[in-house]
């Protein structure tokens, strides 16, 4: 029951049990030498694993515990690929790779350097399944196990990241082309005498210029950001912060450039119908909100997942000052 609660992430139940019998925190199964923290790592339960920071020096005993059959310690469990239903909590193979790498880094913090060099003989299954043993000449350290288990996920993440960056870069390129051309074709044309824009004194014209320049700068920045993603080396460490951060920055600059382009488009009608029909430019300005809204609806979950995986997830492993005993 204790291990089932840890596998399900039922922290409330575990706290009730531990406060009644504090010794259960260090309960270790006889067959596979697993504790609730080993179960939490294998099932990717951050809320349960974070309790390890509340037991003080006892966490060192957890780090030294290993499976007798395979010599796997808790860091080896972090190096194993999570089950599909755990990976599916995050959308996109690249963000799944980021979450897996974050788990490995967090578990690595609680073990000694010695444990990072221990070779395991197989893959234990703490939930009662069959233990898979390696060839005697093919034992692996935690990092080697992580690389082998996550090789396909890394390739899928690379493909997903490139596909996303390619699609977004096409949109950013179109925006750059449009706003660059608009910068040299001012609404109303130029004065024949001095070549200055006819409506340069109009406030709407000022807004048009500012929004057009902003759209050009931001869309160009977005293109360069997505280009840096495409030319990345896609090493495992790149998925931790570099690639998600670049993708988030590229999406945000692309979104703002779309908004600025819509504002510039609307301002042309405010200039043309300044003193004739004020309702028409207002209606057009309202319509231009549609593409901005579509971008938010279609990409909001992706942006939230990036924020959650690349930034908010770090706080899931921090000490929560929960009183266990």
From TrEMBL:
**Which cellular components does GO assign to this protein?**
membrane
Q: Which UniProt keywords apply?
A: Membrane, Transmembrane, Transmembrane helix
Q: Where are the transmembrane segments?
A: 164-184, 204-227, 247-271, 283-304
Q: Which InterPro entries does the UniProt entry name for this protein?
A: PGG_dom (IPR026961)
**A Pfam family matched by this chain, by name?**
PGG
Q: Could you identify this protein by its name?
A: Ankyrin repeat-containing protein
What residues does the PGG domain cover?
A: 158-271
Which branch of life, at top level? Eukaryota
